[in-house]
Amino acid sequence: MSKKDSAGAAQILVYLNEKNRPFSAQDVFTNLQKQCGLGKTAVVKAMEQLAQEGKIQEKVYGKQKIYFADQSQFADVSDAELKKMDARIVEISTEVQTISQSCRQLDTGLQGERDLCEGVEEEEETGNDP
């Protein structure tokens, strides 16, 4: 493997570990095309090499190969931690909904003000007093 290929393989490994979800070689090629500058063949070879080295896992579904980060490198999460994360997700989702509703109300109010200003400008142009 050349220096460029090994650098590309390192970037692919970092990407798969960071995203921690399954990808096909085409997906990785598309997502990292601008960063790595590797061709599709080089990406496929790098991913196969990483799988052979045991750094990532590979599953074959018919003609399609799916690659994903080796899960043994990640720490196990306890049920208590999962429940805490779920509660935090609910909390943040509620906050997002509240903020979104406030934004919609502000947008509605702003549109009303714009309409009012346009009406005043039209009356001033025609010479009528409001």
UniProtKB/TrEMBL annotation:
Biological process according to GO: homologous chromosome pairing at meiosis; meiotic joint molecule formation; meiotic strand invasion involved in reciprocal meiotic recombination
Keywords for this protein: Coiled coil, DNA recombination, Meiosis, Nucleus
InterPro entries listed in its UniProt record: Hop2_WH_dom, WH-like_DNA-bd_sf, WH_DNA-bd_sf
Subcellular location as annotated: Nucleus
Domain Homologous-pairing protein 2 winged helix: 11-69
Molecular-function GO terms, alphabetical: double-stranded DNA binding; recombinase activator activity
Keyword flag Coiled coil: yes
Main location as per UniProt: nucleus
GO cellular component, one term: condensed nuclear chromosome
SUPFAM superfamilies per the UniProt record, alphabetical: Winged helix' DNA-binding domain
PANTHER family: HOMOLOGOUS-PAIRING PROTEIN 2 HOMOLOG, TBP-1 INTERACTING PROTEIN
Recorded family membership: Belongs to the HOP2 family.
Protein name: Homologous-pairing protein 2 homolog
Organism from which the protein derives: Sinocyclocheilus anshuiensis
Gene designation per UniProt: LOC107688134
